[in-house]
Amino acid sequence: MSADPTRPVLDVTGLDVYYRRRHGRLHALRAATLSVAPGETVGVIGETGSGKSTLARAVLGLVRPSAGRIVVAGEDVTGHSARRWRALRRRGVLQYVFQDPLRSLDPDLSVAESLVEPLLIAGRARAEAAERVRAQLARVHLDAALSSRLPGELSGGQRQRVAVARALVTDPELVILDEPVSALDSANRVRALELLKQLRDAGTALLFISHDLGSVAGVADRIAVLYQGEIVEVGPARSIVNKPRHPYTRLLVGSAPTLRSAAADRARRDALRELLHA
Amino acid sequence: MADDVLTLSDVCIHDAVTDRDVVRGVSFSLTPGRAVGIVGESGSGKTLTCRAVLGILPEHFTVAGGTIHLAGRDVAGLTRREWTGLRGATVSAVFQDPASYLNPSLRVGSQIAEVLRVKRGLRRREARRRAVELLATLRLRDPEGVYQQYPHELSGGMLQRVLIGTAIAADPQVLIADEATTALDVTVQAEILDLLAELRERAGLALVVISHDLAVVAQLCDEVLVMRAGEVVEQGPTADILFRPRHEYTRLLIAEHEQYGLDRFLDEREPAGPRAPSPRASGPRDDVDADHAKELDHVG
Amino acid sequence: MLRRILGLTSGRIAVGILAAVALLAVFGPLLAPQDPLAGSTDILASPSARHLLGTDYLGRDVLSRLLAGSRLSVLGAVQVTLMALVVGVVPGILSVYLGRGFEWVTLRLADTLIALPFLVFAVAVTALLGNGIPQAMFTVGIMVSPLFFRVSRAATLSVARSPYVEAAVISGASIAWIVRRHLWAKVLPPIAIALANTAGVGFVVVSSLTFLGIGVRPPAPTWGGVLASDLGYLSYRPWAPLAPTVLIMATVWACNLLADAVRDVSGEAGRALLHTRTIRGRLAAAGRDA
């Protein structure tokens, strides 16, 4: 990675995405602006229908925006043809981790075969690729003996680590993770979050998309809050949690169930709801 | 005991297939306006316990020991007809997936009105009027509009409200919420929990809240039962469970929550200082913020 | 794949029988002890040292006719399957990837073919292209291709939208890569089942077309042809249809056994796509129409 340390790995400006619906169209993303610096971890928080997955899919070139600009690793990809997208993806600078690790791994391919795929697509030699795969398995704390297993023969936590390792084999500058811990039980969730912290500390930029403020807050440097297709607030993770400014962020923080009984917060939540609907 | 609406004493549930007791020795009692929470992972027996209270245990499960009293009545010898009379009018329930409990081809309002007509014997027009009132008390905006809609036109949170509406339409004394907010977004979950708390205060509804999430139960309940593998490992007032847990499983639940929940950050919450404008926030929201700054300050 | 199929007992039996049938197809005409077309006065004879399976109504040696006919029969079945593969499976997979225009046209074509009455179509094609086995098999292949189109398209669709295919796309995979690496193994089992059944239908259809004077011209022997002529003289030689029936049934059974073996060794995802019974049901219906 010889990236210029000041150039953002992702720079999204004024992104608009519409989906066609039976009646008219759905404005899924409204003038979204967001950037990720090299090695930075940015959390994107949003609930159902907030447009958080649309943001990820637009950045990955799976959804075509109707306005705005996307720059990935210094390359303006906004108007890219399918061929140029493929060339960019083969460089492996941008990777993606799906929510459901079981469905994002081919059930008929062994762990090793799945892991080596991005490298083979990129045209690397098989021997070199296999060597890298071994290194990545170690990096996500997976026993090399698991590499001949099929995804169905792994536990949920192991599968998610395979999915993360798969995203890392090409030494990407940016990894987008869409709800990477939502499908895991609480013990595995804690371990997966630890793994993400290690990646962050190793210098990989992460875009961590989730509905759960609690899991993002511990990993992200900055957090962007998406509400109804709009980024309503961006700021350092701690200040989003401790000093949220936008009413929606306040409601989000105030709604997360905590162990401190929160009956007294009801009136505050009500006031915020009124404000949001006004 | 006299004014208890629900009392379980030493309830055991037996599975005839495996010939084992799958729930052992559950006891608690509820007076009007009180709330009991049951926490445990799937398979801990929490759902079977609530099904026993509703008289809808799956086939080959039976209450093998202990007693359940609903509104002072032992439910052990009830006939099917007597159960039908009790459900809805005395005890009612909402579950995790609201959409599957509503008929997709009927307007949601008419499904609430149906409960009123069957359970309360109201005439058609009166039932409709009451159903709209009920939707309004559930804090649904535009209750007349919602009455006319079909289940697929409503969001998960709205559906759960409608379902709560059908559950409380016949003014039951006890409402069981079994993972009723599990599949919902955080803000919607809070709305539903707030609504349940409000119903409890306003109508004196007694609640049994069942969840895998200790925090959800803690928000709403006076007393908590922690269940694992069919057994109650710890039971007591919510504050005791949270701050003075005795059983290691309870401690584990609390520790897990502290590891990934928001709690660890909220502890360091500072008193609100002057708000620094965030340069990264997208432009258009800033003026909205300014407009609401005054209101926000007193709200926050 | 073949090695895993041979690991199964059913797979070994299927491959063994099919290999024997293939040998018959290649060398059968040479093995015929007598001229399969030469008639004699010794008509409808019972088995003897001279005619091991007896003779038919024109006094021709039945064993020789069966051996000599094996090549045409097998060739016919293979042609039908290849035709279905090329006209059905390839567009079925491509219809998912080549854009809306191609998808629309192929879907409408498939609908049209399903709606065509078989006999009218067969007669029309013969009128246009002339009479012969390739023409007849071309017709049958076209007629069964909509089934293959639908089976392969449905399998492709369900795989193409799965996250692991999207993951490959995000890694920069081309369509060719995705088909080769992810799709083929999942699409193959349902297609294999359909193919095996079609091969079976093929044997029967060759003979049923002979009735119409399409395809094989009467003196030339086929398994189905021998069966048809034997059926006409049941009262003289009630056991006679047994020989061609056993040949046809063994081959069809082996095809089905092979298809089952393919299903058993294919992965989880491929198996999930299989609706063996529906595929078989639709083929049976197609066979009845034929």
TrEMBL record, chain A:
Domain ABC transporter: 12-253
Listed name of the protein: Oligopeptide/dipeptide transporter, C-terminal region
Xref: Pfam families: ABC_tran, oligo_HPY
CDD domains associated with the record: ABC_NikE_OppD_transporters
PANTHER family: D,D-DIPEPTIDE TRANSPORT ATP-BINDING PROTEIN DDPF-RELATED, TRANSPORT ATP-BINDING PROTEIN
GO BP, one annotated term: peptide transport
Organism annotation: Micromonospora haikouensis
Molecular function per GO: ATP binding; ATP hydrolysis activity
Family: Belongs to the ABC transporter superfamily.
Tagged with keyword Nucleotide-binding: yes
Keywords: ATP-binding, Nucleotide-binding, Transport
TrEMBL record, chain B:
Basic and acidic residues bias: start-end ranges: 283-300
Topological type in the membrane: Peripheral membrane protein
GO cellular component: plasma membrane
Coarse class of the protein's main subcellular location: membrane
Compartment(s): Cell membrane
Presence of keyword DNA repair: no
InterPro entries with a match to the protein in the record: AAA+_ATPase, ABC_Ni/Peptide_Import, ABC_transporter-like_ATP-bd, ABC_transporter-like_CS, P-loop_NTPase
Record keyword Transferase present: no
Pfam families listed in its UniProt record: ABC_tran
Family recorded in the similarity comment: Belongs to the ABC transporter superfamily.
PANTHER family listed in its UniProt record: ATPASE AAA-TYPE CORE DOMAIN-CONTAINING PROTEIN, OLIGOPEPTIDE TRANSPORT ATP-BINDING PROTEIN APPD
Listed name of the protein: ABC-type dipeptide/oligopeptide/nickel transport system, ATPase component
Organism from which the protein derives: Micromonospora haikouensis
Lineage: Bacteria, Bacillati, Actinomycetota, Actinomycetes, Micromonosporales
Automatic annotation (TrEMBL), chain C:
GO BP terms: transmembrane transport
Residue ranges of the TM segments: 12-32, 72-97, 109-129, 163-179, 191-214
Lineage of the organism: Bacteria, Bacillati, Actinomycetota, Actinomycetes, Micromonosporales
Name the UniProt record assigns to this protein: Peptide/nickel transport system permease protein
Family: Belongs to the binding-protein-dependent transport system permease family.
PANTHER family the UniProt entry points to: OLIGOPEPTIDE TRANSPORT SYSTEM PERMEASE PROTEIN APPC, PEPTIDE ABC TRANSPORTER PERMEASE PROTEIN
PROSITE patterns assigned to the protein according to its UniProt record, in alphabetical order: ABC_TM1
Name of a matching Pfam family: BPD_transp_1
